[in-house]
Every structure is written in structure tokens, then in C-alpha cells.
Amino acid sequence: MMIDKRQGLKLPDIDIGNLDIKFPLDGLVLNVLYVKYGVFHRSMREHSHSLGSYELHYIPSGQGTLLANGARYPIEPGTLFMTGPGVLHEQITNPSDPMAEYCIFFEVLSTDTKPADVHYPGDSSSTLADRLCGTPFWIGQDKENLMPLFELLAGELANKSLGYHRMATSILEMIVIRAIRQYEAHPPLEDAVPTKTLDDNRLLTIENSFLYDYASISLQQLADKLGLSTRQTERMVHKQYGVSFQEKKKQSRMSAAAELLAATEMPIGSIVERVGFATHERFSHSFKQQYGMTASQYRSLRRR
Predict the structure, then answer these.
(1) What is the pLDDT of residue 17?
(2) Do residues 11 and 147 share a domain?
């Protein structure tokens, strides 16, 4: 249990790493890859998720700013937002009042993976599926009182009583449904617990490699991590992001460089080395191609 001394809140830890949790949403199946709680003592740099992947973010305490697809949104206690495929987003924390966050990362699976025995007569959740897939980005203040559900989820995971896997699945389903419900009211600005499949873990490995190992990761190294051939790995990256391995790696490097330019006084030459470019010329060409301006111009613009 984490205690937020600033507001007297007792925020329960949640870290679902190896549980296999899936639930239906009309004709879709949502596959939960992880659920985590954390406090942003450092900002999260700009990144985007693969095709079919979504992150639900709930902020119980703290302050900050969300940059999403070029727009700025204030973050405060009770902020709820969803970031879907291809949505570039960056979370900038307030060092004097850092954000706490519950994050649910899930992917949309095809209907042929839906459990055959799951059916809800008279359920009108088709509109929920339409809203989820038709709204890659949404942000607003939570009006569905999600915090008690996160507390209930934390209790089930901590106690691991009989049936806790089924309870955790039901709670996560309620959280996601209650989040999607809010899109309309606030338009966009068991005993043997199954574990994750190999493909689930591979998707997380790919996401984390581009988020944290962008400077040095090679196609062969990623293939070794995934236990696949380089050809299979290239196909998997293209399936998830719609671009080649090299293009996705370049995008990740550029995102990291942009964050360093905006948030630090590091010389541009040092940034070039940090993000893994062999020459300043190649970096300059790639940066201008990505952002339409030089690194110096970008730094000046972000400092205004």
C-alpha cells in the first residue's frame, strides 16, 4: 500500500505481470497485457502503441501535462484518458506534485479467439466496441468513480482467495466499460490460474525494446529476445506498427532526442550519441524529416 502524503491517500499497489486475462466486448476480445501502479518522478517520453493496442490511464493524485498528437492537456487528480494505436503521447510530471497512475495496457484480439461460452443476452455493448475502436484518443475527468474498483482489484490480487482470477477479470471489465461509457458524455478534446501466452510476452518485449533500447537494439537482437528469425521479427513489427523495424527504431530515436532537447541542456552532439546515431549529419537529416525543423529550432520552440 502506497501512502500519498500530499493528499492523505492510501493508494494500493497493482502489478499484473503474468496473469492471462481476457474478456469480451461485443464481437471483440480484450487481452490485458499488464496493469500497473506507479508514480512519475520522471516524465514519460513521447511514444505510441502498436496496431490494436490501447492504454487506459487513471490519475488518482498529482499534477502534470499530457501532450497527445500535438495538443496539451492538464492532468490533475481524477483525470482519465485512453491512448490507442498510433497516438503519439508524452506525460510530463510536476516535480513538486508528481503524478500517480494506474495503467491498463490491453490489445484487441480478433473474434475467433473469443471464448465460446461467453454470452450476455440483451447486452448492447456493440456501441462500446464501436466507441473504443472509433476513438483512438480520449481524455476527461472520471465521472464513474473508478478508484474503488482499482482498490477492489488490488485486494483480490493481494489476497489471492479462491476465484481471484475470475474476480480480477470481472473488475477489469467493469473498469474498461465504465471508462468507455464516458466518451459520449465527455466527447474527445480460480485454482489453476492461466498465464500469458508467448505472443503476449513478445508484444511487450517489442514495445519495451523500442521504448527503452532504441539506441542500440538491432533486428537480430530483437529476434533473439523473441526467439524468432529476423524475417519473422520483421513481419511481426510491421504487423504491430505498420512500418519496418528500421523505421520504427528511427521514430523511437527521434522521440527520445526530442525529449532530451526539450527537457535538458545536453549539447546536441551528446544527444546524437545518446540516441545511437553514428554521425551528426544522419541525425540532422532524420530529425528534420521527422519534425520539419532542425534540432536547434525545435529546442528553441519548446523553450518558449
Answers:
(1) 67
(2) yes
Domain membership of residue 263 as a residue range: 198-302
- Cα–Cα distance measured from residue 45 to residue 251, given in angstroms and rounded to the nearest whole number: 12
Q: Please check whether residues 88 and 115 belong to one and the same domain.
A: yes
Backbone angles phi, psi at 84, to 5 degrees: -105, -165
Instruction: For 247-302, write each residue's pLDDT tens digit.
Output: 999 989 988 898 888 888 889 999 999 999 989 999 999 999 888 999 999 888 87
- Please check the confidence at residue 194 and state whether its pLDDT lies above 70: no
| CATH code for the domain of 169 | 2.60.120.10
d(CA 18, CA 5): 31
Q: Give domain status of residue 191, yes or no.
A: no
Angle subtended by helix axes 219-226 and 230-241, to nearest 10: 90
Q: Which of 276, 280, 290 is nearest to 247 (CA)?
A: 290
pTM of the full structure = 0.69
